[in-house]
Design a protein that fits this description.
The complex is a heterodimer of chains A (128) and B (181).
Chain A: E1 4-6, E2 14-17, E3 23-30, H1 35-49, E4 56-66, H2 68-82, E5 90-98, H3 102-114, E6 119-124
Parallel strand pairs in A: 3-4, 4-5, 5-6
Antiparallel strand pairs in A: 1-2, 2-3
Helix pairs in contact in A: 1-2
Chain B: H1 8-20, E1 23-30, H2 33-43, H3 54-70, E2 73-75, E3 79-90, E4 93-103, H4 104-119, H5 122-135, H6 146-154, E5 160-165, E6 170-180
Helix pairs in contact in B: 2-3, 3-6, 5-6
Classes of the chains: A alpha/beta (128), B alpha+beta (181).
C-alpha cells in the first residue's frame, strides 16, 4: 500500500496521508465541482489503511473554508477513522482554525459531537 | 454591430451605480465551476480578518454553486446557466445578491425549502443539518438542501428571496444574504 498524496488546487485541498507516521493532513479549501470524484479515492484508501494502521493515527484538518457537500465528505472520513477506536491503535483529530475564525472552530466542535474520536483544536499560523 | 450600444455616459452611470451600492464585484453571464473559482480568487482579496474566511467565502461558494447545480438552462443563442451575482461590502457586512433562472416545476419545492429553513432557529437548523449529514450519502445530489441550511445559519437575520415568473418555462429566482464579518 502506498501513501496518499494529492496536490491541492483553488477548489480542492491537499491530501497528505502517510502510512508510516500515521499523519493524515487535509489542508486548503474544498469546494470541488464533483465531491465524489475528489473524496471517494480518499475514503477507499482509508478503508485499506485501517486494516494496517500506525500506532497513532493523527488526522489534521487545516481548512480555510469549504462548501456544504464537503461537510458530508469530512463526516465520512471521520466515520472511517472512527473504526479504529476500540482497537489497540489510537486515533486523534487535530482541527485547525484561524485565530479569529470562530465559525471554523465551531464547525470542528460540531464534528466532534458527531463522532467518537478525541478532538483537539489548534490555532493556525497565518501565512505572511 | 449596432451603432452606440453603450456610450461613455452609460459606462460612467453604471460605474457610479455600482459604487453607490457599495458593490465590490458584479458578474452577469454564464455560471460554471471555473467562474466560481475565479470569483472566489477575486473576493478573497477583500480581507475579512475579524471572523476569518470560512463564513463569508463559505456562503459565497454556496450561492454560486447553487446556480451552477440548479440553474435552468436558458434557451437563447446558446444554452447556458445564466445568472447574476452582486457582492457588496459595507460597514461590517458582506451583502450577496444572486439571481438565476429555475424551471417552473422546481419552484414549489425550492420555495417550500427556503420558507421552512427561514422559519427555523439556530438550534433547529443545526439539528436538521446534522440529521441530513448523518443520513445522506456522499453522492446524493446537492445533499438534500443542506446548502440552504448552511446559508441560513451564516446569514444575519433572515434570507430574502423572490420568485418572478418569466414565462411558461422558467422563473427568475433572486436571493439576498447579509453576512457579518
Amino acid at each position: 500500500m502506498e501513501n496518499y498524496f494529492k496536490e491541492g488546487d483553488a477548489d480542492v485541498p491537499m491530501f497528505d496521508f502517510n502510512i508510516k507516521s500515521g499523519k493524515m493532513i487535509i489542508r486548503g479549501r474544498s469546494f470541488p465541482e464533483d465531491t465524489v470524484e475528489v473524496y471517494l479515492p480518499v475514503l477507499d484508501w482509508i478503508d485499506v489503511y485501517i486494516t494496517i494502521p500506525a500506532d497513532l493515527t493523527l488526522v489534521q484538518f487545516e481548512l480555510d473554508y469549504f462548501n456544504s457537500s464537503t461537510y458530508k465528505a469530512i463526516l465520512n472520513i471521520l466515520l472511517k477513522f472512527e473504526k479504529l477506536m476500540g482497537s489497540d491503535k489510537k486515533v486523534r483529530v487535530e482541527w485547525f482554525y484561524h485565530e479569529r475564525d470562530i465559525d471554523m472552530k465551531e464547525v470542528g466542535e460540531e464534528f466532534e459531537g458527531l463522532v467518537d474520536i478525541p478532538f483537539s483544536f489548534r490555532i493556525k499560523q497565518v501565512n505572511a | 454591430m449596432e451603432e452606440k450600444w453603450i456610450d461613455h455616459n452609460t459606462c460612467f452611470d453604471w460605474y457610479s451605480k455600482l459604487e453607490e451600492e457599495n458593490l465590490v464585484l458584479s458578474f452577469k453571464g454564464e455560471f460554471n465551476h471555473e467562474l466560481v473559482k475565479a470569483i472566489l480568487v477575486l473576493t478573497e482579496q477583500y480581507k475579512v480578518d475579524k471572523v476569518g474566511p470560512s463564513r463569508i467565502f463559505g456562503v459565497i461558494v454556496e450561492c454560486l454553486q447553487n446556480i451552477c447545480k440548479h440553474g435552468a438552462l436558458v434557451e437563447n443563442e446558446k444554452k447556458m446557466r445564466s445568472g447574476i451575482v452582486l457582492i457588496g461590502k459595507q460597514n461590517n457586512e458582506f451583502l450577496i445578491g444572486a439571481g438565476n433562472f429555475v424551471y417552473n416545476d422546481k419552484v414549489e419545492v425550492l420555495k417550500s425549502r427556503y420558507d421552512m429553513v427561514n422559519e427555523m432557529d439556530e438550534d433547529g437548523l443545526r439539528q436538521l443539518q446534522h440529521g441530513i449529514l448523518v443520513n445522506s450519502s456522499l453522492s446524493e445530489d446537492g445533499n438534500a438542501g443542506i446548502g440552504i441550511i448552511y446559508m441560513a445559519r451564516k446569514t444575519e437575520g433572515k434570507m430574502k428571496y423572490c420568485f418572478q415568473k418569466i414565462d411558461k418555462k422558467v422563473t427568475f429566482f433572486s436571493l439576498q444574504l447579509a453576512v457579518k464579518f
